[in-house]
Design a protein that fits this description.
Strand content: 15-25%
Number of helices: 5
Number of domains: 1
Radius of gyration: 16 Å
CATH class: Alpha Beta
CATH topology: Nucleotidyltransferase, domain 5
CATH superfamily: Ribonuclease H-like superfamily/Ribonuclease H
Largest sheet: 6 strands, mixed
Order of helices and strands: EEEHEHEHEHH
CATH architecture: 2-Layer Sandwich
Length: about 170
Amino acid sequence: MQVFFDTEFANMQADKNGHRYLISIGCVAQDGREFYAELTDTWDEHLCSMFVIDTVLPLLQGGNYSMGVSEMAERLKIWIEGLTDKEVVLRSDAPNIDWPFIQEIFDHNGWPTNLRKKCGAIQFEEPRQFHRYNLGMQSYWQDKIARQHHALEDARSLAFAWKFAVRRGM
């Protein structure tokens, strides 16, 4: 099963150890099931770029979505394992940025038994599929631009555009 995911983090510039400080994660399975969490113990505002302060932080929802990284790791593991008995592949449009968070979280808290331990990039064999993917992205964001950089909304856009790109009969 394909799961499209996105993360938001404190700053594009990694610290001297290569760390970016995870703020939130959103996941959308190809069948529409969703997971979203906002971390409370992995970042603070002084680590954030001005872009993140102005654009990402105002979109945080709080409430039941706020949790520590250990709780998030456990919930995400349960969610992934509950999707299917078959292999789950997490797909990102920026695997070199998003995937290290997944590795770190599950290396410290235990990997889901059905999760492939390698990130899948969003890529296509045919140029027309890539073109349709871009059209799907444009279509998705046409009326929702104000929610860009919300991890779950961004994951929804990835899933929508991917489905648009691979649907048959076009």
